[in-house]
Amino acid sequence: MSLLDRLRARIPSRQQISRNRWLAWLGPWLDQPKLWHWSRRGVAMGVAVGVFFGLLVPLAQIPLSVGAAIVLRVNVPAAVASTLVSNPLTFAPIYYGAYRLGIWVTGEKAVHKDLEVIGAEEIENTLSLWQRIAALGKPLVVGLCITAVLMGLLSYALISLVWRWRTMAKRRGRRR
Length: 176
Hints:
mainly alpha, 9 helices, 0% strand
């Protein structure tokens, strides 16, 4: 059984979603076959949408990626699954890297003199998590936007190339 077959087996079908009492209201929008079709363009674009929203938006990533997938008519399961690129393990490195990128692009100075110098206890005592993130301001937003766009484009290109390479390899195998 291939990886794609295993993924398909674990993803809920349109019928399962339409029977779910919490998601039934989405039925008219999710009933389009293109949203569930496993094609090169649909999956690659779905992953790109999911990665974009997964990196850019800290909350409500899945609903936003589903909405964008419906509007763009791309694979919804791929969009939802790829939002998990940001999770509790990757959140801090992503935001720190985006913040440093934003500082480099905007030329602004680091908040709190330098985040590496100040101890975690000092920051925790003075500011809540959301206050700390808001204090990072413009560099963080700029860095997240650049990171989300670049990673979305990169994931689209990578999935398209791998899909095409696998398709060509299968065709060559059939000819022999």
